[in-house]
Design brief:
The complex is a heterodimer of chains A (665) and B (162).
Chain A: E1 14-19, H1 31-39, E2 44-50, H2 56-69, E3 73-78, H3 81-94, E4 102-106, H4 108-112, H5 118-136, E5 145-148, E6 153-156, H6 160-171, E7 176-179, E8 194-195, E9 200-201, H7 202-215, E10 219-222, E11 225-233, E12 236-243, H8 258-262, E13 270-271, E14 280-281, E15 284-285, E16 297-298, H9 304-307, H10 314-319, E17 332-338, E18 340-343, E19 347-349, E20 366-368, H11 369-376, E21 396-403, H12 418-433, E22 436-441, H13 451-460, E23 464-467, E24 470-475, E25 483-489, E26 494-500, E27 502-507, E28 509-511, H14 515-522, E29 549-551, H15 561-581, E30 583-586, E31 591-593, E32 613-616, E33 621-624, H16 634-638, E34 644-646, H17 651-662
Parallel strand pairs in A: 1-2, 1-3, 3-4, 6-7, 6-18, 7-10, 18-29, 20-27, 21-22, 21-27, 22-23
Antiparallel strand pairs in A: 5-30, 8-9, 11-12, 12-17, 13-14, 15-16, 19-28, 24-25, 25-26, 31-34, 32-33
Chain B: E1 19-24, H1 28-37, E2 46-51, H2 59-67, E3 72-77, H3 88-105, E4 113-117, H4 123-140, H5 153-161
Parallel strand pairs in B: 1-2, 1-3, 3-4
Classes of the chains: A alpha/beta (665), B alpha/beta (162).
């Protein structure tokens, strides 16, 4: 019993406010009855109901009542504290009380929205309000802690989202470390030929930004690196980054690529990852001509020197006194300290082999859309010629939409970009080859600026649209190398069989295969399917539940380039806002030790995941370092003497809550 | 059904168990929030007490809830490896097993005390857990902690004989 006025019935004066939330709460909870019930509880000086407690007049009500009725505790029953706790703490503070002489009750998410039965809902709301009223009597004024925020930022993932975010932050004068696991930044966008619906060349708009990243004085670019471990908390993260060996000294290599020409392999033998295996690369390679950083990489799996140690090392010879090649390079771990983290780790393309009836991997002329992007690209495997694997130009092309999207067996979600990129590919393929192009779609989804107009344009250009899901792809009976696409045309109501030379699968977007590991490393949450969860779907779309960590781009869900860039800018802006404030206020819910009750038994010490507890040998008492404590309360629950306690979650407060929810009246 | 707020006085047709649910702030409490925003319906018998971490749940809280008339206690925390505070849920798990055995000794059936890992995105599993637990506890009937004196007769004699 640590509240001074406890026991003095007149000293505690509680104001209770039951929010209607329009009809959101009032529709299924008898708010009037709840307010009336609360008014009769001990300590309650005033109990009201109001349409929208979070509105200005609602907050004013609290402020005025504190003054007029001498209130010293406030209970608001409305939505989740995750939504409006801050709002009401603000109102309580503005009314002259300490922000923590307040308790919030969740009667919307936890009651009215989940329990349609009004009697049961009202009874539950009563119980929860009663618990809060009993609990709040024990609340004491607390002070928030201010923790300084480091100005340095970590951006993870060097696709267009990471690039845009890094540049935005760096332009504002903040130091950014951009970590990318591939040898170059650029991500998927670097692989595209043109972007919809404007048809501007992807490389033309992306590569200048890539170069700016490398040139920017405030950006440290660590490509071919992966974040291994993150510790600390908002404002003060310590990050360990694994720098994979390129076997090239990055600071010395100038990207002349003479070593590639000099390699003992006259032609490439390894599938070129950047061209999705449609061309070959040498063991020493640059992923693509505009790669950033302009530094070659040696693949030890295929390099003769690594395999046998008996290579002539013509690459070393040609590099001469620059001595950029270093076969002894080892993986190394670097540690950086940052205040904020932006995750822009992107997506994975759906693996078309998972749907064998489309014949990908079986019939050579079945391609994924990304492969066709590379075919269309002037720096691609065919220098921009759309040709089949045998070199012929296709005279007819079938594009199948929704591969791995909107499908019960693979992914239920719509990947959002496929309709538009399928239209783009239809346009480009028709333009380059003059082929007849057939689009097989389920629904044509073109919601976006200029998107529907683009669809109309492509339709006017003579691209065929067949509304139907392709059920089968099989070799034409004529044995002429063509493939037949069979689908039910749902507009005509009959089965169509369309023979084509080339099949393009509009594969969808999936979360990265290791999204789960990344999520764990950064302690954020994933929705089903592995997409990172935003703090609020509408109002906090780039924040996460872990303070100081933001997400942007396709790691949060399928999206196109403009939306990705918008999110990246938003995330950078939110990080900047925190950095510029210079500090963050932390919840005062830390644990503390009541020294006179502590026997120095050390039970609590190993419980703390942050090593915040130490036993003062001289005094024989445990002591909690408030700066290190994050307020989980695990030490409190194991303390045999009850001397370990937690602000805001005191034993008394929780016991009162338990009693409150269980009491009948 | 008339809209009244009278609890047991309204004499419910069937036994409605009262279950105290201790949910951690970062996973299970958010799963319950998500159930709300997605309008998933589930049994109204649980009363959520929010703690920052399931590691904060003192076994005494559970005993207190049963002593104060709860018919069941549900603990919800983050999945192993997902704890917002690194490892609080593991500590909860250790305590849970010991406590459940202790409760069994006191005559409190296992179905009345449950630990579930429910992440912030698992609103549907939350619904399933709550509904399942409510049904199981309903089938068990109200928890009567009072143990008849006869149960201790033998022991009492032994003590007296010493």
């Amino acid at each position: 019993m640590h509240t001074p006025e406890h026991g003095d019935a007149n000293a505690v004066r509680i104001g209770v406010y039951i929010c209607h939330c329009g009809t959101n709460i009032a529709g299924t909870v008898d708010v009037h009855a709840v307010a009336e019930h609360a008014g009769k509880l001990p300590g309650v000086a005033i109990s009201r109901e109001y349409k929208y407690m979070c509105s200005d007049p609602g907050q004013e009500l609290i402020k005025a009542d504190i003054k007029d009725h001498g209130l010293n505790r406030i209970v608001v029953a409305s939505c989740s504290p995750h939504l409006h706790e801050k709002t009401f703490r603000g109102a309580v503070t503005a009314g002259g009380l300490n922000a923590f002489q307040f308790q919030m009750v969740n009667i919307r998410e936890h009651v009215s929205w989940v329990h349609p039965d009004k009697r049961a809902g009202t009874e539950k709301a009563d119980a929860l309000v009663r618990a809060a009223v009993r609990r709040v009597r024990f609340h004491v004024p607390l002070e928030t802690r201010r923790v300084p925020v480091r100005a340095d930022v970590l951006v993870v993932g060097g696709g267009i989202a990471g690039i845009h975010a890094a540049l935005t932050l760096a332009d504002a004068g903040k130091h950014v470390t951009l970590v990318e696991r591939e040898p170059t930044i650029g991500g998927h966008m670097a692989m595209f030929d043109k972007t919809f619906p404007t048809l501007d060349c992807a490389a033309c708009i992306l590569t200048p930004k890539m170069t700016s990243v490398k040139a920017h004085k405030n950006i440290t670019l660590w490509a071919y690196s992966e974040v291994q471990e993150v510790s600390g908390y908002v404002g003060n993260f310590t990050v360990k980054v694994k720098r994979k060996p390129r076997y090239i000294r990055e600071d010395v290599c100038v990207g002349c690529q003479e070593c590639i020409d000099a390699c003992v392999y006259k032609v490439g033998k390894e599938p070129d990852e950047f061209n999705l295996g449609m061309s070959k690369r040498k063991p020493i390679y640059l992923p693509f001509p505009q790669a950033v950083p302009q530094v070659v990489t040696i693949d030890p799996e295929s390099c003769i020197e690594f395999k046998s140690g008996k290579c002539k090392k013509t690459c070393v010879e040609v590099c001469a006194d620059r001595e950029a090649i270093d076969f002894t390079q080892k993986e190394r771990i670097e540690t950086i300290e940052v205040g904020t983290i932006l995750l822009t780790t992107g997506f994975k393309v759906f693996d078309a082999k998972r749907l064998p009836y489309y014949g990908y991997g079986t019939y050579p002329n079945v391609y994924t859309a990304l492969e066709v992007e590379r075919l269309l690209n002037a720096s691609g495997p065919t220098s921009g010629e759309v040709v089949l694997r045998d070199g012929r130009t296709p005279r007819s092309v079938g594009i199948i939409h929704c591969i791995g999207s909107r499908d019960e067996h693979t992914n239920k979600h719509c990947s959002r970009v496929c309709c538009m990129y399928a239209l783009k590919l239809a346009h480009l393929v028709q333009e380059r080859t003059g082929a007849e192009v057939y689009n097989f779609y389920i629904d044509m989804r073109t919601p976006g600026k200029g998107f529907e107009e683009f669809y109309n344009r492509v339709a006017e250009e003579g691209v065929h649209f067949i509304r139907g899901k392709v059920a089968d792809v099989y070799p034409a009976p004529e044995n002429d190398g063509r493939l037949v696409l069979q689908a039910e045309d749902t507009l005509l109501g009959r089965i169509r069989r369309v023979p084509v030379d080339m099949v393009v699968l509009a594969v969808g977007m999936e979360a990265q295969a290791d999204a789960e590991d990344v999520r764990r490393t950064f302690n954020i949450t994933c929705a089903s399917g592995g997409w990172f969860t935003e703090r609020h779907p509408k109002l906090a779309p780039v924040a996460t539940f872990t303070d100081g960590v933001w997400i942007a781009g396709a790691c949060q869900g399928p999206k196109d380039i403009p939306d990705t860039v918008a999110q990246a800018g938003a995330a950078a802006g939110e990080a900047l806002s925190l950095i510029n404030a210079g500090y963050i206020e932390l919840e005062p819910n830390t644990a503390y030790i009541v020294a006179e009750d502590c026997s120095g038994c050390k039970t609590c010490v190993p419980m703390c995941p942050y090593k915040a507890i130490a036993v003062n040998v001289e005094k024989g008492k445990a002591e909690i370092n408030e700066v290190l404590c994050k307020g989980c309360g695990t030490c409190v629950s194991v303390c045999p003497s009850g001397s370990a306690r937690q602000n805001l979650f005191e034993d008394d407060e929780i016991y009162e809550e338990i009693g409150g929810v269980l009491a009948y009246a | 059904m008339p809209e009244t707020t009278k609890g047991p006085a309204a004499a419910p047709a069937q036994f409605e168990p009262r279950i105290v649910a201790f949910f951690c702030n970062w996973c299970t409490y958010l799963a319950a929030d998500l159930a709300g925003t997605t309008r998933i319906k589930y049994a109204p018998n649980i009363r959520v007490v929010r703690v920052m971490c399931s590691g904060r749940i003192d076994p005494q809280f559970v005993l207190d809830a049963f002593a104060k008339g709860a018919d069941g206690v549900l603990i919800g925390g983050c999945h192993p490896g997902d704890c917002h505070y690194e490892s609080g849920n593991y500590k909860t798990l250790r305590r849970f097993h010991l406590l459940r055995r202790t409760l069994r000794t006191l005559g409190i059936e296992e179905e009345r005390f449950r630990l579930e890992w429910l992440s912030a995105s698992e609103a549907e599993p939350l619904k399933a857990v709550v509904n399942d637990m409510v049904e199981k506890v309903r089938a068990l009937g109200p928890l009567h902690l009072e143990v008849p004196a006869e149960a201790f007769a033998e022991e009492a004699e032994e003590v007296a004989a010493r």
